[in-house]
Amino acid sequence: MKKFWSKDWGSSEPPEIKDKDGSSWGWKKVSALGVLIVALCLGVLGIWWSFEPDLADVYQQLDEQTDEYQGVAGASTTLALQLAMQTLLQKPGGLLSNDLMPPGRWVDNVPNWEYGVIVQSRDLAKAMREGFSRSQAQSREAPALAIVEPRFNFDHRSWILPSSEGEYREGLEELQDYLDRLSGQAEGDTRFFVRADNLQRWLRSVENRLGSLSQRLGASVAGSRVDLSFQSVEELSEDEGDLSQTSWNVIDDIFFEARGSTWAIALFLTAIEKDFGAVLDDKNARVSLQQIIRELEAAQEPLFGPIVLNGRGFGIFANHSLVIASYVARAHAATIELRTLLING
Q1: Could you tell me which residues come within 8 angstroms of residue 14 by beta carbon, excluding any fewer than 6 positions away?
Q2: Predicted model pTM
Q3: How far is the CA of 4 from the CAs of 10, 27, 89, in angstroms?
Q4: What stretches of the chain adopt beta strand conformation (E)?
Q5: Helix 251-275 and helix 286-298: axis angle, to 10°?
Q6: How far apart are CA 277 and CA 177, in angstroms?
Q7: What SS3 class is residue 241?
Q8: Angle at the Cα of 126 (from 216 to 71), degrees rounded to 5?
Q9: Positions of E strands within 210-249
Q10: Is 313 helix (H, G, I), strand (E, B) or coil?
Q11: What per-residue confidence (pLDDT) applies to 18?
């Protein structure tokens, strides 16, 4: 059968595509143009997915949802944990940490941001299971929270069998069940104990996380690090320190992990202030908590630049890691003060 495109019914080759001036494009050029258009679309989509969720929008959602649970102790903290994990799944692009296809595969800043949020969410889920939901050490843990913690601790990079999203959604369902029982919308004996000792134990984990982040961010410039494994101060000497500097290719990873961690802690502390208001006032600790939130919110200022710069501390170019490290360090110091007030105030 002869080809329908053949003018003389003897040629089997299709006609070449030509533009207005009669020049031939050729199939290679058409294919190259198609690839270029697809790459451009994926690039634009990747940029859109790279924007971090606005903390102010999540604050507003927290206020709106908390109004539905007026007078329910622990509702605000539970909702904050729920909102943090929901944001990971519902933001543009969803969870990107386990993406295998572009543009999610090409984007690395947001996955590190996600990891920071996930780490803080896991810490709070553990504190709720071990402390906030139990009246004493020998009390029975809430069955729903016993499922929430391992689900949130599931590997955030798992793509399938099972997927990270599936495990996190199951954890969110159990967290909603805990909230329903807490508010009396479902049957079950579930409590949230608003006590200073429970709060200060969770703040201890926050203090450790902030301290670690501050050290890692500060390592963006070379500095002397002392080996603290010695048994006494007399064994230390100047030549026993070594120069330690974060590699240039992971500077942005640590930066965005810190952004995610401070984002989540600020959200959780805002909820804590609602639930533990009476405790904070009794210990004269509300101002200290508000100071931590202000420092963490300052670390969320927009990054006006396409890359995370790694200039010297007093050099010509900025060092974004040192800038955010200053806010994290002040929040760390304020957390220590807050814990002291809760213990001795």
Answers
A1: 3, 5
A2: 0.86
A3: 10, 19, 51
A4: 223-226, 241-244
A5: 150
A6: 25
A7: strand
A8: 115
A9: 223-226, 241-244
A10: coil
A11: 52
Residue 331 to residue 80: CA distance in whole angstroms: 20
Question: What tokens appear for 61 in the block?
Answer: 């959602």
State how far the Cα of 343 lies from the Cα of 335, in Å rounded to an integer.
12
Per-residue confidence (pLDDT) for residue 240, from 0 to 100 = 45
- Region of residue 188 (phi > 0: left; psi between -120 and 50: alpha; otherwise: beta): left
pLDDT at 222: 66
Strands 223-226 and 241-244: antiparallel
First to last CA, the chain: 94
Which residues face 223 on adjacent strands? 244
Instruction: State CA 29 to chain mean position distance.
Output: 43
DSSP β-bridge partners for residue 224:
243
What pLDDT does residue 24 have?
53
Alpha-carbon distance 35 to 125, whole Å? 45
Average pLDDT per 10 consecutive residues for the chain, totaling 345 residues? 46 52 64 84 83 94 93 95 97 92 84 97 96 81 94 94 95 96 82 93 96 91 55 48 66 94 98 96 95 97 84 79 95 96 87
Tokens of 265: 């802690």
Which runs of E-coded beta strand occur in 258-324? none
CA separation (Å) from 190 to 72, 76, 129, 196? 11, 15, 11, 19
Q: 154, 85 in Cβ contact below 8 A?
A: no
Contacts of 288 (CB under 8 A, 6+ apart): 334, 337, 338, 341
319 beta partners: 310
pLDDT at 304: 82
